[in-house]
Amino acid sequence: MTIDMSQFYQVFFDEADELLAEMEKLLLALDVSAPDSEDLNAIFRAAHSIKGGAATFAFTDITEVTHMLESLLDRIRKGEMALTPEHVDVFLVAKDVLTMQMDGHHHGSSVDQEAVDSVCQRLKALSQGITANVPAAAPGTTPDAAAPEPVVPMAAPVADADGNYHFRIELPEVPQKDVDALAAELGLLGSINQETLADKRAVFTLVTSEGQDSIVAICSFVLDPDDLRITHGDAPVIPQASTPAGAAAQPPADDPGYGIFEPEKTGTASPAAPAAAAPNADQAPASAPAGEAKNWGRRATDKEGASQESSSIRVGVEKVDQLINLVGELVITQAMIEQRINALDPIAHERLLNSASQLARNTRDLQEAVMSIRMMPMDYVFSRFPRMVRDLAAKLGKKVEFVTRGAATELDKGLIERIVDPLTHLVRNSVDHGIEMPEMRRAKNKDEAGKLTLSAAHQGGNIVIEVSDDGGGLNRDRILAKAKQQGLSVSDTMPDADVWQLIFAPGFSTAEVVTDVSGRGVGMDVVKRNITAMGGTVEIRSVPGSGTTIAISLPLTLAILDGMSVKVGEEVYILPLGYVIESLQPAAADVKEIAGQGQVVKIREEYLPLIPLYQIFAIEPNFTDPSQGIVVILEADGKKAALLVDGLVGQQQVVVKNLESNFRKVAGISGATILGDGGVSLILDVSALLRSSRQLNADPVFF
Amino acid sequence: MSYTTQTQTSLQAAGESAGNEFLAFTLGKEEYGIDILRVQEIRGYEPVTRIANSPDFIKGVVNLRGIIVPVVDMRIKFNLGTPTYDQFTVVIILNIAGRVMGMVVDSVSDVTTLSPEQVKPAPEMGTTFDSDYLIGLGTLNERMLILVDIDKLMSSAEMGLIEKIAA
Fold first, then answer.
1. What confidence score (pLDDT) does residue A137 get?
2. Are A46 and A19 a contacting pair, CB within 8 Å?
3. Mean pLDDT for chain A?
4. CA end-to-end span of chain A
5. Given CA atoms A617, A619, A624, A628 in this order, what sign does their dihedral have?
6. Where are the domains of chain A?
7. pTM of the complete model
8. How many angstroms separate the CA atoms of A370 and A365, rounded?
9. Count of H helices and E strands in chain B?
10. Cα–Cα distance between B104 and B90 in angstroms, integer?
11. Are A387 and A28 in contact (CB under 8 A)?
């Protein structure tokens, strides 16, 4: 029976995504001059886990890249190689490539094979380059005595005429049955010879076309690959010449791949090869302490990592939503019980009343607890910015210090996902336009490195996210000049806050140079629109010369909306309160007919198009005359209109339900909600209504 | 999701060999049958919230324990019987490919098991349903059930219940 692996794909992709994000975070936090060995181990583990998963699902391209990444990381974490900024860069690029490959497998998006090849090349180059660098760092060895790595994955093994490599594999002390098992396994790769050393350790000589990695992979089932010593050569092995593993010093530097004939030189082991030294500490005492300490450290953190993993579980969003729905039902039911009970005599039914109030309390607690499941820390969003800022700053030749605050602030998962794009845009803008070039900052007596702060905090029922920089600030005059040039209605005496809002107008950019980062003027209007769609607001504070702060205020959860219920005929609709400016009954004289264009209403010296809701939704209204009904003035995307309804019902918080989960999208409707009586009411899509109002008369049917 | 679909298909496959269970209901004078595994529950008719500018057979949406569910009236859709709504009007709640929807019918009679031999291929004419949406005709003593492929019918563009086809 074959197992359908595809059902496990999602798990792998989810996990790999998390691991990649984790890896990136760690890489960025890494102090290149003094890397924390625990972080290096964590990065290595992430690469390793992805490789394992990818291999299981036969995603060979991912396996290849992770493998190279892993072997390079392995050498760095063992201290065989010094970490350089170049490494970090290549690792980050490799991470991007992996993400791309992952998407390729997951969503079938295209994979840029050139990028994959280039990162493989760079990884390979880095791991090969090291043989030249290490000897210099190895004290106690003569300059011409290169210290060969005990595990040299990429150091160009010499193939014989048949394309076979000759490997010599020294095992640590293991039980005979394991040696036999390994011999049998390795025998599958090619022809194998087995010898036993004086100290009872087994040595294989293997002639195979496979790479060294295959050998390590096979051996790792039985023993720690770190304890393994693999060398290769193009000549038959002479086992008598071999030495205890720790003493690793090899005179002929002109033959780096030829690590077989190692003269016995006790006490000259290089600290650059600690991993090899550790298992043989008794034979190479001089090299032992450092190597051992490192190795123990690594094992300890492995264990720690394992114990952390079990502290959370992965649950599908549908399950959580179902839970929230059920609790919502429970709350309604509880409210119904409470209503019935209030009609009872409180003295005769005291105990029932007590139980009911306890039920009310428990229900409320339960609801709060369940709602909190959907909440996620802002860190989920913030963590992707350090990388972006770093790359962007490097590209623009700026220096930026990036600070985040309040990353633990929690926000609804739905909002978290939707805030990413607008925030990305704002951060880009700040780096590109806000923060000045280092020279300019110096000239202004500022710190060369600009400071970009991303913060999140709760304020009442809202969350406020701020992007603030200490750059040049917005230029009032230039914005005004640009606005005039674009024909926007502005005056020189406008308050600052109004001037700043101008940058949200479509197509507005004051950047002198259009870069590929920003400056095309598309974007700020999209940012504003996205945030308004989430029920939020954007506010700008800017002081010339000392910086700009853009504050986004969002409701804590998408699930709840402040709504105004309006009535047309027998039907009740909900208007999101954020769009409503005012509501009034116009005088008959203020309603004007425009031939072929419908009606307009004159409100505060402004003529607004009238949108009769009954006409759009084909409802039998109580009033068709605006001066008898009520008009609600709505504003969306900078446009105003008057919506004609029969009357206002009230204002309430409603729980937003998705209409599309069981039905399709309905034009003019953004969602639905359940009213107190259990009935359904539809939430109006105000922006769509306003957009449609312009074509209303040309095409009376709403579609 | 994919798991659920798989289970359903395998159940269906298993059911087809051993005989399928069908829920029988009437529309006008005709008796219909649908796969019982697609039926989530059967409810009385509750007032719906009308959705503007949708075809008249889409009655609107109702609140089913916190989920918004569209309700279609088969009697209007297929011009069978008179659409009256009283305490005897029945709504069959279906779960098709993870989507929940309600279907108004005249009445629900029973659940019957039909072996493959009892299911005859549908003739090209004679029913209101397009034969594309028919599995066949089920014969049970004197009764004849028109077996409807409810998955196909409900996800068809004609019903306009599902986004991608409707758009």
1. 38
2. yes
3. 73
4. 52
5. negative
6. 6-137, 148-239, 317-373, 377-555, 560-693
7. 0.48
8. 9
9. 4, 11
10. 6
11. yes
More confident residue, B160 or B115: B115
Burial of A248 (0-12, 13-18, 19+ CB in 10 A): buried
Q: Where are the domains of chain B?
A: 2-166
> Measured between CA atoms, how close is A10 to chain B, in angstroms?
11
Q: Note whether B61 contacts A661, CB cutoff 8 Å.
A: no
Lowest mean pLDDT among A78-92, A214-228, A232-246, A304-318: A232-246
Instruction: Look at domain A560-693 and name its CATH class.
Output: mainly beta
pLDDT digits (tens, 9 = 90+) for A138-185: 344 344 434 444 444 444 445 555 556 677 777 666 667 667 777 776
Residue type, A497: A
> For residue A698, is pLDDT > 60?
no
CATH fourth-level superfamily of B2-166: CheA-289, Domain 4 (2.40.50.180)
State the pLDDT at residue B94. 92
Would the CB atoms of A326 and B70 count as touching at under 8 Å? no
In a mutagenesis test of the B interface, which of A320, A619, A655, A662 is the best target, namely the one with the most B β-carbons within 10 Å?
A: A662
Q: What are phi and psi of A302, to 5 degrees?
A: -55, -45
Answer yes or no: do B163 and A664 touch at CB < 8 A: yes
Listing DSSP states for A360-397 in one string gives HHHHHHHHHHHHHHTEEETHHHHTTHHHHHHHHHHHHT
Buried/exposed code over A652-688 (b: 16+ C-beta within 10 A; e: otherwise): eebbbbebeebbbebebbbbbbbeeeebbbbbbbbbb
Contacts of B163 in chain A (CB under 8 A): 660, 664-665
Query: What's the CATH number of domain A6-137, 1.20.120.160, 1.10.260.40, 3.20.20.70, 3.30.565.40?
Result: 1.20.120.160
Q: What is the dihedral of CA A28, A33, A39, A40, to 10 degrees?
A: 100
Phi and psi for A129 in degrees, rounded to 5?
A: -55, -20
Tell me how far the alpha carbon of residue A8 is from its chain's centroid.
22
pLDDT value at A593 more than 90:
no
For residue B60, CA distances in Å to A311, A680, B49, B84, B88 come to 45, 10, 5, 16, 19
Answer whether residue B111 shows pLDDT above 50: yes
Alpha helices of A212-316 — where are they, by DSSP H? Answer: 212-219, 274-277, 288-309
Model pLDDT, residue A237: 42
Q: What DSSP line would sit under A573-628, residue for residue?
A: EEEEGGGEEEEE---GGGEEEETTTEEEEEETTEEEEEEEHHHHTT---S--STTT
CATH class of residue range A148-239 = alpha beta
Question: Is residue B68 packed enough to be buried (19+ CB in 10 Å), middle (13-18) or exposed (0-12)?
Answer: buried
For A577-588, the pLDDT digits (tens) are 888 888 988 888
Report in angstroms the alpha-carbon separations of A390 from A122, A584, B105: 20, 52, 63
Contacts B47 to A, Cβ<8 Å: 679
pLDDT at A512: 52
Residue A659 to residue B100, Cβ atoms within 8 A: no
End-to-end CA distance of chain B: 23
pLDDT at residue B71 tops 90: yes
**Residue A347, token pair as written in the block:** 């003295």
Three-class secondary structure of residue B68 per DSSP: strand
Helical packing angle, A113-137 and A60-77, nearest 10°: 20
Interchain proximity B49–A571, CB inside 8 Å: yes
Portion 58-77 of B in contact with A at CB < 8 A: 60-63, 65-70
B63–A680 C-beta distance less than 8 A: yes
Let me know if domain A377-555 sits in CATH 3.40.50.10490: no
A265-269, A549-553, B111-115: range with lowest mean pLDDT: A265-269
